[in-house]
Amino acid sequence: MAADDRPYKNTVAVLATMHGKERVIAPVLKEGLGLIVGLAMSVDTDTFGTFSRDVERTGSPLDAARAKIGAGFEYAPYTRVGLASEGSFGPHPHIPFLALGRELVLLIDRERGLELTGHFASPETNYGHAVVSDMEAAAAFAQRSKFPEHGLIVMGCVDETPAPGLALFKDVIDHATLEKAVGQVVAKCGAAFVEADMRAHRNPTRMRAIERAASDLVRRFRSQCPACAHPGFDVTERITGLPCEWCGEPTHVTRAEVLACQACDYRIERPATSATTADPGRCESCNP
Protein backbone atom coordinates (compact mmCIF):
# COMPACT_ATOMS: atom_id res chain seq x y z
CA MET A 1 0.00 0.00 0.00
CA ALA A 2 1.37 3.41 -0.94
CA ALA A 3 1.92 5.85 1.90
CA ASP A 4 -0.40 8.40 0.24
CA ASP A 5 -3.26 5.88 0.49
CA ARG A 6 -3.14 5.95 4.29
CA PRO A 7 -5.92 8.24 5.57
CA TYR A 8 -4.23 9.00 8.90
CA LYS A 9 -0.70 9.50 7.63
CA ASN A 10 1.43 10.90 10.50
CA THR A 11 -1.59 11.27 12.80
CA VAL A 12 -0.88 10.34 16.42
CA ALA A 13 -3.31 8.00 18.20
CA VAL A 14 -3.28 7.33 21.93
CA LEU A 15 -3.52 3.71 23.07
CA ALA A 16 -4.40 2.79 26.65
CA THR A 17 -2.73 -0.52 27.55
CA MET A 18 -0.51 -1.89 30.29
CA HIS A 19 0.13 -5.22 28.62
CA GLY A 20 2.20 -4.59 25.52
CA LYS A 21 -0.61 -4.62 22.97
CA GLU A 22 1.11 -1.83 21.06
CA ARG A 23 3.56 -4.46 19.79
CA VAL A 24 0.90 -5.89 17.46
CA ILE A 25 -1.57 -3.02 17.11
CA ALA A 26 0.88 -0.24 16.18
CA PRO A 27 2.50 -1.91 13.13
CA VAL A 28 -0.86 -2.94 11.65
CA LEU A 29 -2.45 0.49 12.01
CA LYS A 30 0.63 2.33 10.80
CA GLU A 31 0.82 0.19 7.68
CA GLY A 32 -2.91 0.19 7.03
CA LEU A 33 -4.01 3.66 8.12
CA GLY A 34 -0.85 5.69 8.72
CA LEU A 35 -1.46 6.07 12.45
CA ILE A 36 1.46 6.64 14.81
CA VAL A 37 0.50 4.92 18.05
CA GLY A 38 1.59 6.40 21.37
CA LEU A 39 0.91 5.00 24.84
CA ALA A 40 -1.14 6.55 27.62
CA MET A 41 1.63 5.74 30.07
CA SER A 42 -0.08 6.64 33.34
CA VAL A 43 -3.46 4.99 32.65
CA ASP A 44 -4.10 1.94 34.84
CA THR A 45 -6.29 -0.17 32.57
CA ASP A 46 -6.76 -2.74 35.35
CA THR A 47 -9.28 -0.34 36.89
CA PHE A 48 -11.67 -1.32 34.08
CA GLY A 49 -11.55 -5.01 34.99
CA THR A 50 -9.06 -7.87 35.29
CA PHE A 51 -9.14 -11.47 34.14
CA SER A 52 -7.96 -12.50 37.62
CA ARG A 53 -11.24 -11.22 39.07
CA ASP A 54 -9.70 -8.93 41.68
CA VAL A 55 -11.37 -6.09 39.75
CA GLU A 56 -14.67 -7.03 38.12
CA ARG A 57 -15.42 -5.61 34.68
CA THR A 58 -18.71 -3.76 34.53
CA GLY A 59 -20.57 -3.61 31.24
CA SER A 60 -19.61 -5.17 27.94
CA PRO A 61 -16.15 -5.48 26.35
CA LEU A 62 -17.10 -2.54 24.12
CA ASP A 63 -18.01 -0.48 27.19
CA ALA A 64 -14.61 -1.25 28.71
CA ALA A 65 -12.80 -0.30 25.48
CA ARG A 66 -14.67 3.00 25.34
CA ALA A 67 -13.74 3.71 28.96
CA LYS A 68 -10.08 3.02 28.20
CA ILE A 69 -10.16 5.44 25.27
CA GLY A 70 -11.80 8.05 27.49
CA ALA A 71 -8.92 7.68 29.93
CA GLY A 72 -6.47 7.92 27.04
CA PHE A 73 -8.03 11.18 25.91
CA GLU A 74 -7.71 12.54 29.46
CA TYR A 75 -4.03 11.62 29.34
CA ALA A 76 -3.57 13.24 25.91
CA PRO A 77 -6.36 15.87 25.68
CA TYR A 78 -5.32 17.22 22.27
CA THR A 79 -5.13 13.83 20.58
CA ARG A 80 -7.66 13.27 17.82
CA VAL A 81 -7.70 9.46 17.70
CA GLY A 82 -7.99 7.01 20.59
CA LEU A 83 -7.45 3.25 20.56
CA ALA A 84 -8.20 0.40 22.93
CA SER A 85 -8.42 -3.38 22.90
CA GLU A 86 -10.56 -5.72 24.96
CA GLY A 87 -10.96 -9.49 25.01
CA SER A 88 -13.50 -11.94 26.39
CA PHE A 89 -13.34 -15.69 26.83
CA GLY A 90 -15.81 -18.43 27.61
CA PRO A 91 -17.55 -21.57 26.34
CA HIS A 92 -18.19 -21.81 22.62
CA PRO A 93 -21.89 -21.02 22.00
CA HIS A 94 -22.41 -23.92 19.59
CA ILE A 95 -19.70 -26.50 20.29
CA PRO A 96 -19.79 -28.13 23.75
CA PHE A 97 -16.54 -28.38 25.73
CA LEU A 98 -14.76 -25.93 23.41
CA ALA A 99 -13.58 -22.49 24.49
CA LEU A 100 -13.93 -19.37 22.36
CA GLY A 101 -11.84 -16.21 22.50
CA ARG A 102 -13.16 -12.91 21.19
CA GLU A 103 -11.08 -9.80 20.59
CA LEU A 104 -12.00 -6.28 19.62
CA VAL A 105 -9.87 -3.27 18.76
CA LEU A 106 -11.73 0.03 18.96
CA LEU A 107 -10.87 3.29 17.19
CA ILE A 108 -12.55 6.58 18.06
CA ASP A 109 -11.86 9.70 15.97
CA ARG A 110 -13.50 12.42 18.02
CA GLU A 111 -12.90 15.06 15.35
CA ARG A 112 -14.94 13.11 12.79
CA GLY A 113 -17.37 11.57 15.28
CA LEU A 114 -16.22 8.15 14.08
CA GLU A 115 -16.27 4.91 16.08
CA LEU A 116 -15.10 1.69 14.42
CA THR A 117 -14.39 -1.75 15.84
CA GLY A 118 -12.33 -4.60 14.44
CA HIS A 119 -13.21 -8.11 15.60
CA PHE A 120 -11.66 -11.55 15.69
CA ALA A 121 -13.08 -14.70 17.27
CA SER A 122 -11.47 -18.13 17.38
CA PRO A 123 -11.45 -21.38 19.34
CA GLU A 124 -7.64 -21.26 19.11
CA THR A 125 -7.13 -20.19 22.70
CA ASN A 126 -5.54 -21.71 25.78
CA TYR A 127 -8.29 -20.30 28.01
CA GLY A 128 -9.06 -22.73 30.82
CA HIS A 129 -8.60 -23.54 34.50
CA ALA A 130 -8.11 -26.40 36.93
CA VAL A 131 -8.69 -26.91 40.64
CA VAL A 132 -5.60 -28.70 41.97
CA SER A 133 -4.48 -30.04 45.34
CA ASP A 134 -0.89 -30.90 44.46
CA MET A 135 1.92 -29.91 42.14
CA GLU A 136 1.47 -32.95 39.90
CA ALA A 137 -2.03 -31.84 38.91
CA ALA A 138 -0.84 -28.24 38.51
CA ALA A 139 2.00 -29.34 36.23
CA ALA A 140 -0.39 -31.35 34.06
CA PHE A 141 -2.65 -28.32 33.61
CA ALA A 142 0.38 -26.11 32.95
CA GLN A 143 1.47 -28.37 30.12
CA ARG A 144 -1.99 -28.20 28.53
CA SER A 145 -1.87 -24.41 28.82
CA LYS A 146 1.41 -24.08 26.87
CA PHE A 147 3.33 -23.05 30.00
CA PRO A 148 5.85 -21.46 30.42
CA GLU A 149 5.56 -19.66 27.04
CA HIS A 150 2.08 -18.73 28.26
CA GLY A 151 1.74 -17.51 31.84
CA LEU A 152 -0.49 -18.80 34.62
CA ILE A 153 -2.40 -17.27 37.51
CA VAL A 154 -2.78 -19.09 40.82
CA MET A 155 -5.42 -18.01 43.32
CA GLY A 156 -7.33 -19.15 46.35
CA CYS A 157 -10.16 -21.64 46.03
CA VAL A 158 -13.37 -22.18 48.00
CA ASP A 159 -15.76 -24.98 47.00
CA GLU A 160 -13.91 -25.28 43.66
CA THR A 161 -14.58 -21.64 42.80
CA PRO A 162 -11.93 -18.91 42.50
CA ALA A 163 -11.26 -16.80 45.58
CA PRO A 164 -8.65 -14.16 44.67
CA GLY A 165 -9.35 -12.34 47.92
CA LEU A 166 -7.75 -15.21 49.83
CA ALA A 167 -4.64 -15.54 47.69
CA LEU A 168 -3.55 -14.31 44.27
CA PHE A 169 -0.32 -14.93 42.37
CA LYS A 170 0.08 -13.27 38.98
CA ASP A 171 3.12 -13.41 36.70
CA VAL A 172 3.64 -17.13 37.21
CA ILE A 173 6.04 -17.69 34.31
CA ASP A 174 8.39 -20.45 35.47
CA HIS A 175 8.12 -23.79 37.24
CA ALA A 176 9.75 -22.63 40.47
CA THR A 177 7.23 -19.79 40.85
CA LEU A 178 4.35 -22.14 40.00
CA GLU A 179 5.45 -24.67 42.62
CA LYS A 180 5.81 -21.99 45.27
CA ALA A 181 2.41 -20.42 44.50
CA VAL A 182 0.53 -23.73 44.40
CA GLY A 183 2.17 -24.88 47.64
CA GLN A 184 1.22 -21.71 49.51
CA VAL A 185 -2.36 -21.63 48.24
CA VAL A 186 -3.00 -25.33 48.88
CA ALA A 187 -1.62 -24.94 52.41
CA LYS A 188 -4.01 -22.05 53.02
CA CYS A 189 -7.15 -23.18 51.15
CA GLY A 190 -6.79 -26.93 50.71
CA ALA A 191 -6.83 -26.48 46.93
CA ALA A 192 -5.64 -23.94 44.38
CA PHE A 193 -7.47 -22.46 41.40
CA VAL A 194 -4.98 -22.38 38.52
CA GLU A 195 -5.87 -20.72 35.23
CA ALA A 196 -4.31 -19.50 32.02
CA ASP A 197 -3.12 -15.91 32.25
CA MET A 198 -5.17 -14.17 29.56
CA ARG A 199 -3.33 -10.85 29.83
CA ALA A 200 -1.86 -10.11 26.42
CA HIS A 201 1.77 -9.76 27.49
CA ARG A 202 1.62 -13.22 29.12
CA ASN A 203 -0.30 -14.91 26.31
CA PRO A 204 1.25 -15.09 22.81
CA THR A 205 -1.84 -16.85 21.41
CA ARG A 206 -4.04 -13.97 22.50
CA MET A 207 -1.55 -11.41 21.17
CA ARG A 208 -1.88 -12.95 17.70
CA ALA A 209 -5.66 -12.72 17.96
CA ILE A 210 -5.42 -9.01 18.86
CA GLU A 211 -3.29 -8.50 15.75
CA ARG A 212 -6.04 -10.14 13.67
CA ALA A 213 -8.64 -7.83 15.22
CA ALA A 214 -6.46 -4.81 14.35
CA SER A 215 -6.27 -6.03 10.75
CA ASP A 216 -10.06 -6.35 10.69
CA LEU A 217 -10.30 -2.74 11.91
CA VAL A 218 -8.24 -1.63 8.91
CA ARG A 219 -10.46 -3.68 6.59
CA ARG A 220 -13.61 -2.13 8.02
CA PHE A 221 -12.19 1.39 7.82
CA ARG A 222 -11.44 0.87 4.14
CA SER A 223 -14.93 -0.46 3.42
CA GLN A 224 -16.67 2.79 2.47
CA CYS A 225 -20.38 3.41 2.09
CA PRO A 226 -21.34 3.50 -1.62
CA ALA A 227 -23.72 6.38 -0.90
CA CYS A 228 -21.69 8.73 1.33
CA ALA A 229 -18.16 7.23 1.44
CA HIS A 230 -18.24 7.01 5.26
CA PRO A 231 -15.87 4.31 6.60
CA GLY A 232 -17.15 1.13 8.16
CA PHE A 233 -19.72 -0.05 5.62
CA ASP A 234 -19.96 -3.64 6.77
CA VAL A 235 -22.20 -6.52 7.77
CA THR A 236 -24.58 -5.56 10.58
CA GLU A 237 -27.08 -8.41 10.33
CA ARG A 238 -27.20 -12.00 9.14
CA ILE A 239 -30.54 -13.42 7.99
CA THR A 240 -31.17 -17.13 8.43
CA GLY A 241 -33.67 -19.25 6.52
CA LEU A 242 -31.82 -20.92 3.65
CA PRO A 243 -34.32 -23.59 2.53
CA CYS A 244 -33.60 -27.28 3.06
CA GLU A 245 -32.57 -29.19 -0.06
CA TRP A 246 -35.02 -32.02 0.73
CA CYS A 247 -38.16 -30.46 2.21
CA GLY A 248 -37.79 -26.80 1.33
CA GLU A 249 -38.43 -25.61 4.88
CA PRO A 250 -36.30 -22.72 6.17
CA THR A 251 -33.24 -23.71 8.22
CA HIS A 252 -30.97 -21.84 10.63
CA VAL A 253 -28.36 -21.54 7.89
CA THR A 254 -27.61 -17.92 6.92
CA ARG A 255 -29.11 -17.02 3.56
CA ALA A 256 -28.29 -13.29 3.39
CA GLU A 257 -26.20 -10.53 4.93
CA VAL A 258 -27.21 -6.91 5.49
CA LEU A 259 -24.55 -4.23 5.10
CA ALA A 260 -25.31 -0.82 6.57
CA CYS A 261 -23.71 2.59 6.96
CA GLN A 262 -23.21 4.22 10.35
CA ALA A 263 -23.59 7.72 8.95
CA CYS A 264 -26.57 7.49 6.59
CA ASP A 265 -29.53 5.19 6.02
CA TYR A 266 -27.99 3.34 3.09
CA ARG A 267 -28.09 -0.46 3.37
CA ILE A 268 -27.99 -3.41 1.04
CA GLU A 269 -28.80 -7.09 1.33
CA ARG A 270 -26.63 -9.65 -0.41
CA PRO A 271 -26.60 -13.47 -0.55
CA ALA A 272 -24.41 -15.00 2.15
CA THR A 273 -23.62 -18.04 0.05
CA SER A 274 -23.70 -19.18 -3.56
CA ALA A 275 -25.78 -22.19 -2.47
CA THR A 276 -29.54 -21.99 -3.01
CA THR A 277 -30.39 -24.77 -0.55
CA ALA A 278 -29.05 -26.04 2.76
CA ASP A 279 -27.70 -29.47 3.64
CA PRO A 280 -30.60 -31.58 5.08
CA GLY A 281 -28.33 -32.31 8.04
CA ARG A 282 -28.86 -28.67 9.10
CA CYS A 283 -32.66 -28.96 8.87
CA GLU A 284 -34.67 -29.43 12.05
CA SER A 285 -37.46 -31.15 10.12
CA CYS A 286 -35.31 -33.65 8.23
CA ASN A 287 -32.73 -34.11 10.96
CA PRO A 288 -34.47 -33.37 14.28
List keywords for this structure.
alpha+beta; four-stranded antiparallel sheet; 288 residues; Maf protein; single chain; 5 helices; 3 domains
Could you characterize the architecture of this molecule?
By secondary structure, the protein is an alpha+beta fold. The chain is built from 5 helices and 12 strands. The strands form 3 sheets. The protein has a 5-stranded mixed sheet, with helices on both faces. A 4-stranded antiparallel sheet has the order 6-9-7-8, with helices on one face. The longest helix is centred in the last third of the chain and has 18 residues, at 204-221. The chain starts with 11 loop residues before the first strand and ends in a 17-residue tail after the last strand.
Q: Uncertain segments of ≥5 residues (pLDDT<50)?
A: none
Q: Specify the biggest β-sheet.
A: 5 strands, mixed
| Spatial order of the strands forming the largest sheet | 2-1-3-4-5
**Could you state the order of secondary-structure elements as H and E?**
EHEHEEEEHEEHEHEEE
Shape: flat
**Tally of strands:** 12
Structural class: alpha+beta
